[in-house]
Amino acid sequence: MDNEKPIVDFGAIRDVLGKDFEPVQVLDGQAKVIKPEIVSKYSNEQLVEFFKLMLWERTLHQRSNALTRQGRLGFYAPTEGQEASEMGSNAAMKKTDVLMPAYRDIPQLIQHGLPVYKAFLWSRGHVLGNEYPEDFHAMPPQIIIGAQYVQAAGVALGIKKNGTEDKVAYTYTGDGGTSQGDFYEGMNFAGAFEAPAVFIVQNNGYAISVPRRKQTAAKTLAQKAVAAGIPSVQVDGMDFLAVYEVTKAAREYAAAGNGPVMIETLTYRFGPHTNAGDDPKRYRTKDEEQPWFDNDPLIRYRKYLTDQGVWSEDQENEYVEQVKEDIKAAVKQADEAPKQKMTEFLGNVFEEQPQNIQQQITEFQAKESK
Ligand SMILES: Cc1ncc(C[n+]2csc(CCOP(=O)(O)OP(=O)(O)O)c2C)c(N)n1
Ligand SMILES: [Mg+2]
């Protein structure tokens, strides 16, 4: 009796889940074209424009890093390594789509239309950093892990109920975020209401110091969408064209009224979690990091473009200088913003002030009028 096979082989079921998720790739790690039919859709000029997006993000990262160390910015979550994942997905969206970002998604927010100086003011905790232009469709970056997934589900349902055509809500979280209740609730809700949401998970390997393998027993993060009835995919997150093409397809699917989609991008955070002081050396080894550094999304794409003879070091230097100038001007603009008053800061939290906040506002009003 003991040797009888059980009615269900649970171990086999667990192993099978996740096998359906083969990461999509267009250019491999050696810049070899895996899917020529995708690359040939784009002119050399377009391919160069895509590269510039990543180069812009890398330069923004380098400047933001330096500015934080000089005490000229406040909160900063490094984005180095995630350029293909962030710029590839964002480039597939339309300006009329609604973006619900997290703290590491500032580059997407800026490309979606937020002026750079406003992003800097947000980093400094200035209220003006959260004051958005009327025609800018986004929410301020979420710090509460996973909360933006719930917001995205609601916004997507709103889009559907308003009957707005060709519009989606899109949002990002990290590998760690997929352990949050909000992550599941948001996806489940959007799935049930067939709301046009594109859920993106940037799997950068870590939730601060917790590695992906300790985060969840799921074989892939993409398969977490299955239970919500949502189609999902894994994509090489170091491959701009793969991320772009997959997100474009996901957006089209959702915008056509088919319901939400989830994308897991396989990427890596090159630097620390934030500039607040964690040291990756304490939770990662050089042996683990090096292959990822070699897999830099810019190296791969740059090699492809230079092999094609459409990109040079001079072009790169010239472009980077121009981006640095733009950033310098944005820092100046942020510096010129009026000093924030405590009353403005407090008044920005709720639409109608609860009694305890009102009390504090009254207190600070008295101080500020002196
Ligand atoms: C609800 C909640 N719990 C905990 C935190 C503290 N916290 C901030 S970032 C972070 C890790 C998130 O990791 P991941 O989702 O992988 O995103 P990444 O930072 O790697 O982009 C945690 C636990 C928080 N901000 N919100
Ligand atoms: Mg992470």
Automatic annotation (TrEMBL):
Gene Ontology MF term list: fibronectin binding; pyruvate dehydrogenase (acetyl-transferring) activity
This protein's name: Pyruvate dehydrogenase E1 component subunit alpha
Cellular component annotations (GO), alphabetically ordered: cell surface
Superkingdom field: Bacteria
GO biological process, one term: branched-chain amino acid catabolic process
Cofactor(s) essential for the protein: thiamine diphosphate
InterPro entries: Alpha-ketoacid_DH_E1_comp, DH_E1, PdhA/BkdA, THDP-binding
PANTHER family, per the entry: 2-OXOISOVALERATE DEHYDROGENASE SUBUNIT ALPHA, MITOCHONDRIAL
Keyword tags: Oxidoreductase, Pyruvate, Thiamine pyrophosphate
Function: The pyruvate dehydrogenase complex catalyzes the overall conversion of pyruvate to acetyl-CoA and CO(2). It contains multiple copies of three enzymatic components: pyruvate dehydrogenase (E1), dihydrolipoamide acetyltransferase (E2) and lipoamide dehydrogenase (E3).
Top-level enzyme category: oxidoreductase
EC number annotated for this UniProt entry: 1.2.4.1
Reactions listed under catalytic activity: N(6)-[(R)-lipoyl]-L-lysyl-[protein] + pyruvate + H(+) = N(6)-[(R)-S(8)-acetyldihydrolipoyl]-L-lysyl-[protein] + CO2
CDD domains (alphabetical): TPP_E1_PDC_ADC_BCADC
All copies of domain Dehydrogenase E1 component, residue ranges: 52-342
Assembly behavior: Heterodimer of an alpha and a beta chain.
Presence of keyword Nucleotide-binding: no
Family matches, as Pfam families: E1_dh (PF00676)
Name of encoding gene: pdhA
NCBIfam families: PDH_E1_alph_x
UniProt entry tagged with the keyword Glycoprotein: no
